Amino acid sequence: DAGVIQSPRHEVTEMGQEVTLRCKPISGHDYLFWYRQTMMRGLELLIYFNNNVPIDDSGMPEDRFSAKMPNASFSTLKIQPSEPRDSAVYFCASSPRQGVDSGANVLTFGAGSRLTVL
Amino acid sequence: AQSVSQHNHHVILSEAASLELGCNYSYGGTVNLFWYVQYPGQHLQLLLKYFSGDPLVKGIKGFEAEFIKSKFSFNLRKPSVQWSDTAEYFCAVNAPGGSYIPTFGRGTSLIVHP
Protein backbone atom coordinates (compact mmCIF):
# COMPACT_ATOMS: atom_id res chain seq x y z
CA ASP A 1 0.00 0.00 0.00
CA ALA A 2 1.26 3.49 -0.78
CA GLY A 3 0.24 4.79 2.62
CA VAL A 4 -1.94 7.80 3.32
CA ILE A 5 -1.73 10.18 0.39
CA GLN A 6 -2.35 13.87 0.76
CA SER A 7 -2.48 16.66 -1.77
CA PRO A 8 -1.37 19.28 -2.31
CA ARG A 9 1.89 19.12 -0.35
CA HIS A 10 2.18 22.89 -0.37
CA GLU A 11 -0.45 25.53 -0.93
CA VAL A 12 0.05 29.26 -0.92
CA THR A 13 -3.06 31.35 -1.26
CA GLU A 14 -4.41 34.76 -0.50
CA MET A 15 -6.78 35.62 2.27
CA GLY A 16 -10.38 35.06 1.27
CA GLN A 17 -9.68 32.30 -1.18
CA GLU A 18 -11.13 28.80 -0.90
CA VAL A 19 -8.71 26.01 -0.04
CA THR A 20 -9.37 22.32 -0.53
CA LEU A 21 -7.08 19.69 0.93
CA ARG A 22 -7.40 16.09 -0.14
CA CYS A 23 -6.68 12.75 1.47
CA LYS A 24 -6.67 9.15 0.37
CA PRO A 25 -6.54 6.79 3.36
CA ILE A 26 -5.06 3.32 3.41
CA SER A 27 -7.42 0.84 1.85
CA GLY A 28 -9.37 -1.06 4.47
CA HIS A 29 -8.89 1.50 7.21
CA ASP A 30 -12.21 2.37 8.79
CA TYR A 31 -11.12 5.56 10.55
CA LEU A 32 -9.90 8.80 9.05
CA PHE A 33 -8.62 11.77 11.00
CA TRP A 34 -7.76 15.36 10.12
CA TYR A 35 -5.20 17.10 12.32
CA ARG A 36 -3.73 20.59 12.23
CA GLN A 37 -0.20 21.29 13.43
CA THR A 38 1.01 24.73 14.44
CA MET A 39 3.88 25.96 16.55
CA MET A 40 1.52 27.57 19.01
CA ARG A 41 -1.01 24.80 19.50
CA GLY A 42 0.83 21.64 18.55
CA LEU A 43 -1.19 18.83 16.99
CA GLU A 44 -4.94 19.39 17.13
CA LEU A 45 -7.64 16.94 16.08
CA LEU A 46 -10.10 18.71 13.81
CA ILE A 47 -12.50 15.92 12.88
CA TYR A 48 -12.62 12.18 12.45
CA PHE A 49 -14.72 9.78 10.43
CA ASN A 50 -15.72 6.17 10.98
CA ASN A 51 -16.86 4.30 7.88
CA ASN A 52 -17.22 7.62 6.04
CA VAL A 53 -19.46 9.12 8.71
CA PRO A 54 -18.25 12.17 10.66
CA ILE A 55 -18.19 11.21 14.32
CA ASP A 56 -16.69 14.18 16.11
CA ASP A 57 -16.12 17.59 14.54
CA SER A 58 -15.79 19.49 17.80
CA GLY A 59 -12.23 20.39 16.90
CA MET A 60 -13.17 22.25 13.74
CA PRO A 61 -12.28 25.87 14.47
CA GLU A 62 -15.32 27.53 12.97
CA ASP A 63 -17.85 27.40 10.20
CA ARG A 64 -15.25 28.31 7.63
CA PHE A 65 -13.96 24.76 7.95
CA SER A 66 -15.79 21.76 6.54
CA ALA A 67 -14.82 18.17 5.88
CA LYS A 68 -16.39 15.44 3.81
CA MET A 69 -15.79 11.80 3.12
CA PRO A 70 -17.93 10.81 0.15
CA ASN A 71 -16.47 7.32 0.01
CA ALA A 72 -14.01 5.06 1.78
CA SER A 73 -11.06 6.16 -0.33
CA PHE A 74 -11.34 9.92 -0.32
CA SER A 75 -11.79 12.83 2.05
CA THR A 76 -11.56 16.59 1.73
CA LEU A 77 -10.99 19.41 4.17
CA LYS A 78 -12.20 22.75 2.89
CA ILE A 79 -11.56 26.23 4.22
CA GLN A 80 -13.72 29.01 2.85
CA PRO A 81 -12.82 31.81 3.13
CA SER A 82 -9.25 31.27 4.23
CA GLU A 83 -7.47 33.57 6.70
CA PRO A 84 -3.79 34.04 7.58
CA ARG A 85 -4.33 32.36 10.96
CA ASP A 86 -5.26 29.16 9.11
CA SER A 87 -1.64 28.81 8.02
CA ALA A 88 -0.48 25.44 9.33
CA VAL A 89 0.39 21.91 8.32
CA TYR A 90 -2.72 19.78 7.92
CA PHE A 91 -2.30 16.06 8.41
CA CYS A 92 -4.62 13.29 7.43
CA ALA A 93 -4.29 9.96 9.20
CA SER A 94 -6.09 6.65 9.01
CA SER A 95 -6.47 3.69 11.31
CA PRO A 96 -7.77 0.18 10.70
CA ARG A 97 -9.97 0.27 13.75
CA GLN A 98 -10.18 1.63 17.24
CA GLY A 99 -10.61 -0.91 19.97
CA VAL A 100 -9.09 -2.98 22.69
CA ASP A 101 -6.69 -5.14 20.75
CA SER A 102 -3.08 -4.24 20.21
CA GLY A 103 -3.50 -3.99 16.47
CA ALA A 104 -5.97 -1.21 16.77
CA ASN A 105 -5.58 2.46 17.52
CA VAL A 106 -2.34 3.00 15.62
CA LEU A 107 -2.56 5.92 13.22
CA THR A 108 -0.75 6.09 9.91
CA PHE A 109 -0.17 9.68 8.90
CA GLY A 110 0.13 11.25 5.51
CA ALA A 111 2.95 13.58 4.57
CA GLY A 112 0.86 16.65 5.34
CA SER A 113 -0.30 19.70 3.41
CA ARG A 114 1.50 22.90 4.32
CA LEU A 115 -0.89 25.80 3.91
CA THR A 116 0.22 29.42 3.81
CA VAL A 117 -2.45 32.09 3.66
CA LEU A 118 -1.10 35.53 2.80
CA ALA B 1 -11.43 13.80 29.21
CA GLN B 2 -7.90 12.58 28.84
CA SER B 3 -4.96 14.95 28.40
CA VAL B 4 -1.27 14.53 27.77
CA SER B 5 1.57 16.69 29.07
CA GLN B 6 5.04 16.73 27.64
CA HIS B 7 7.21 18.74 29.96
CA ASN B 8 10.18 19.35 27.71
CA HIS B 9 9.36 21.49 24.72
CA HIS B 10 12.90 21.76 23.42
CA VAL B 11 15.83 19.50 24.16
CA ILE B 12 19.33 19.95 22.80
CA LEU B 13 21.90 17.20 23.22
CA SER B 14 25.25 16.16 21.90
CA GLU B 15 25.71 12.83 20.18
CA ALA B 16 26.12 9.89 22.56
CA ALA B 17 24.26 11.66 25.35
CA SER B 18 21.40 9.87 27.03
CA LEU B 19 17.84 10.96 26.40
CA GLU B 20 14.73 10.96 28.50
CA LEU B 21 11.56 12.76 27.40
CA GLY B 22 8.76 13.10 29.88
CA CYS B 23 5.12 12.29 29.23
CA ASN B 24 2.30 12.35 31.74
CA TYR B 25 -1.36 11.72 31.12
CA SER B 26 -4.50 12.37 33.06
CA TYR B 27 -6.85 9.44 32.96
CA GLY B 28 -7.67 7.13 35.79
CA GLY B 29 -8.55 4.01 33.87
CA THR B 30 -6.82 1.67 31.49
CA VAL B 31 -4.92 3.43 28.74
CA ASN B 32 -3.04 2.68 25.58
CA LEU B 33 0.10 4.77 25.16
CA PHE B 34 2.14 5.75 22.13
CA TRP B 35 5.18 7.68 21.06
CA TYR B 36 5.28 9.04 17.54
CA VAL B 37 8.27 10.68 15.86
CA GLN B 38 8.30 13.32 13.15
CA TYR B 39 11.63 13.74 11.36
CA PRO B 40 12.25 17.12 9.70
CA GLY B 41 9.95 17.57 6.76
CA GLN B 42 8.31 14.21 7.22
CA HIS B 43 5.06 12.84 8.57
CA LEU B 44 4.50 11.36 12.00
CA GLN B 45 5.31 7.71 12.38
CA LEU B 46 4.91 5.29 15.23
CA LEU B 47 7.98 4.82 17.43
CA LEU B 48 6.50 2.45 19.99
CA LYS B 49 3.30 1.60 21.79
CA TYR B 50 2.07 0.11 25.03
CA PHE B 51 -1.15 -1.86 25.32
CA SER B 52 -0.63 -4.33 28.14
CA GLY B 53 1.92 -6.65 29.71
CA ASP B 54 5.54 -5.68 30.27
CA PRO B 55 5.59 -1.97 31.16
CA LEU B 56 8.98 -1.57 29.50
CA VAL B 57 8.37 -1.26 25.80
CA LYS B 58 11.06 -1.36 23.16
CA GLY B 59 10.62 0.42 19.86
CA ILE B 60 12.55 1.11 16.73
CA LYS B 61 16.01 2.66 16.56
CA GLY B 62 16.95 1.80 20.13
CA PHE B 63 14.17 3.74 21.80
CA GLU B 64 12.27 2.42 24.79
CA ALA B 65 9.57 3.72 27.09
CA GLU B 66 8.45 2.72 30.53
CA PHE B 67 4.85 2.82 31.66
CA ILE B 68 4.59 3.68 35.35
CA LYS B 69 0.94 3.48 36.23
CA SER B 70 1.31 4.99 39.71
CA LYS B 71 2.90 8.08 38.19
CA PHE B 72 0.65 8.26 35.11
CA SER B 73 3.83 8.45 33.08
CA PHE B 74 5.23 7.00 29.88
CA ASN B 75 8.69 8.47 29.48
CA LEU B 76 10.75 7.87 26.36
CA ARG B 77 14.41 6.94 26.70
CA LYS B 78 17.45 6.23 24.61
CA PRO B 79 20.87 5.49 26.11
CA SER B 80 22.90 7.15 23.36
CA VAL B 81 21.40 9.53 20.83
CA GLN B 82 22.59 10.10 17.30
CA TRP B 83 22.42 13.13 15.04
CA SER B 84 19.74 11.31 13.04
CA ASP B 85 17.44 11.32 16.08
CA THR B 86 16.87 15.03 15.57
CA ALA B 87 13.08 15.20 15.31
CA GLU B 88 9.85 16.14 17.02
CA TYR B 89 8.52 13.54 19.45
CA PHE B 90 4.86 13.22 20.36
CA CYS B 91 3.34 11.26 23.19
CA ALA B 92 -0.26 10.11 22.73
CA VAL B 93 -2.81 8.35 24.88
CA ASN B 94 -6.19 6.84 24.26
CA ALA B 95 -8.59 5.37 26.71
CA PRO B 96 -10.16 2.05 25.75
CA GLY B 97 -13.15 2.88 27.89
CA GLY B 98 -13.76 6.01 25.90
CA SER B 99 -13.75 6.75 22.22
CA TYR B 100 -10.26 5.26 21.63
CA ILE B 101 -9.36 8.39 19.74
CA PRO B 102 -5.80 9.35 20.68
CA THR B 103 -4.98 12.62 22.37
CA PHE B 104 -1.56 13.98 21.51
CA GLY B 105 0.82 16.01 23.62
CA ARG B 106 2.29 19.27 22.36
CA GLY B 107 5.46 17.55 21.24
CA THR B 108 9.13 17.84 22.19
CA SER B 109 11.65 19.13 19.72
CA LEU B 110 14.95 17.27 19.99
CA ILE B 111 18.10 18.60 18.38
CA VAL B 112 21.20 16.44 18.48
CA HIS B 113 24.50 18.11 17.69
CA PRO B 114 27.15 15.95 16.00
Largest sheet of chain B: 6 strands, mixed
Oligomer: heterodimer
- End-to-end Cα distance of chain B, whole Å, is 41 Å
Give the averaged pLDDT of chain A, no decimals.
91
Summing up helix and strand content along with how strands pair, one would put the structural category of chain A as mainly beta
Briefly note the structural class of the backbone of chain B: mainly beta
Q: Could you give the order of the helices and strands of chain A? A: EEEEEEEEEEE
Largest interface summary: A-B, 25 and 23 residues
Residue-averaged pLDDT of chain B: 91
- What is the count of helical runs of chain B? 0
Low-pLDDT segments of chain B: none
Strand share of the residues of chain B? Answer: over 45%
Question: What percent of the residues of chain A sit in helical stretches (DSSP H or I)?
Answer: under 10%
Gyration radius of chain A (Cα, Å) is: 14 Å
Straight-line distance between termini of chain A = 36 Å
- How do the SSEs of chain B run, as a string of H and E? EEEEEEEEEEEE
Number of strands of chain A: 11
Shape of chain B: globular
Give Rg of chain B in angstroms.
14 Å
Instruction: State the shape of chain A.
Output: globular
